[in-house]
Amino acid sequence: MRLLPLAGARRVAPFAVLVTGAAVLGPLGTVPLGLLASGGGLVAPAALLLAALLAQELCTALREPAGAAVARGIDGVLRARVRAATVAMPLERLESPLVQADVRLALHGHRGRTAGAAAVAAAGEAGRLASAVLGAAVLSAHVWWLGGAALVLALAQNRRIETMLVGPGGVESLADSAGQARRRRRADYLAGVAGGPGGVAKEIRVFGLESFFVARYVAAMRAYLAPQARGRRAVVRGYGWVLGVQAAAACGTFAVLGRQAGAGWLEAGALAQCVVAALLVFAYGAGGHQMFDVAYGTEPFRAVTRLLAPVPAPPPAGHGGIDLTGVTFAYPHAAAPVLDRLDLRVRPGERLAVVGRNGAGKTTLVKLLTGLYTPRLGTATTCPAAVVFQDFVRYPLSLRDNVRLGDPSFEGTDADVLAALESAGALDLLNFLPGGLGTPLSRAFTGGRDLSGGQWQKVALARAVYAMNADPSRALIVDEPTAHLDARAEREVFERLLDGTGGRTMVLISHRFATVRRADRIVVLEGGAITEQGGHAELMAAGGRYAHWYRLQADLITRDGR
């Protein structure tokens, strides 16, 4: 319930009044009921009883929408905090499957229940408990031991039902076990494949796989539902015992009250009060839907708490240079590190090329150079950088906005945008965009156009160049963004970047050795370590791996006529 203040006083105050009213008016209604039953007047007690009943019904009816408003307010605040935390979160942590699971829980809840719903349900459960306690007090006022005994039994019964349904080992917790989660993911995957669009739909129809995937999906769902069905049958049997005990306790309570009345120790008014009070107590023992909201909504709240936990400080920022010293990095559960005791210094203004075969660790190195990853061992000193990743983003915005997103705070003109496009070799895009720089790069918009993979890559390059031009202290890091270009086109792009960024720090990543010969220094990355480094002529003269792969790739390009 400590989350309730997040919704604001305007939402919480009415909700608190309604919860309190629904909890208190029932026990208070026993007072005019006793007067009415004992013959202490008719009009006034009846009017008071009717007013109490109507007020209680009104509070109960309005409590649900008021609670929903409170839950929305809490969830809105928590979601905003989670989104802010994920934006500022180190990439290495954000990419963790556990963190991604927490993000889904925090933003979407668990089984439709959110942290806000849990807070509201906890308040409602507190109201039910207060009503039961007041009912027990009314009972004890007439039969001193009966109220306490009934309340203890109701508390035990409520706890027993909660354990059977949502507690550890309960039927609903069974659905959240690791095995059940895997079965559900498999069933969801098969359902997505069977009804999926695009290439999946084409292959299913071409190869006649409809019945195959439907049968697999049915089998997967049966495997998922069978344990829950067995658990629910066990709960039904257990629930029968709980209700049996509840009924026996209620009958025993009413028998005691009847005996007290028969012996003349309870008047008619007191007897009526005790019967209603006993019903209030035993109603709590029967459980309520709030226990589901509290149990399921607690998990999203725990996820929020984990996501908002303090994170380590980012690597120290340098001034135009980058320095990795003794850096070792391994992904979670990996058998071996991707980079092992690596030393690399990029001097301010240096144009460095990092080459290596696929899987050599180049992309991981980029994330360390930019401070997105923190080394397991060693130190990494980074500097502000404009980066073009392999998996660059294709924003469904205008060409102008796609470029200006490199630095939205820089109030550049169209001339600055055009200069960035020219440096990236993307000026020719304007020839087929009807709206020029203002053309949306998506067919989802009127007048929009889509681009080819190579054209999108040039836009991503232009965005990075724009960012570097906006802040000259930024380094430019290009991580193989030209996968959709042939080797000659890639070399032309790199040479254009080298010509247009003189005096700036630049790191070019490529698996094509022949495209980076003009770099000031070339580093060969292999097996998570730097095996060679130097200028192009120096490395060719050394006759090592660089020279071997350079000649091999050059021969392939010549043979293919590219």
UniProtKB/TrEMBL annotation:
Q: Give me the Gene Ontology terms describing cellular component.
A: plasma membrane
**Residue spans crossing the bilayer:** 12-29, 238-257, 263-284
Keyword terms, alphabetized:
ATP-binding, Membrane, Nucleotide-binding, Transmembrane, Transmembrane helix
Query: What Gene3D superfamilies does this protein's entry cite?
Result: P-loop containing nucleotide triphosphate hydrolases
Location of this chain's protein in the cell = Cell membrane
InterPro entries noted in UniProt:
AAA+_ATPase, ABC1_TM_sf, ABC_transporter-like_ATP-bd, ABC_transporter-like_CS, P-loop_NTPase, Type_1_exporter
Listed GO MF terms: ATP binding; ATP hydrolysis activity; ATPase-coupled lipid transmembrane transporter activity
Q: May I ask which residue range the UniProt record assigns to the signal sequence?
A: none
Q: How does it sit in the membrane?
A: Multi-pass membrane protein
UniProt keyword Transmembrane helix, yes or no: yes
Q: What is this protein called?
A: ABC-type transport system involved in cytochrome bd biosynthesis fused ATPase/permease subunit
Q: What is the taxonomic lineage of the source species? A: Bacteria, Bacillati, Actinomycetota, Actinomycetes, Streptosporangiales
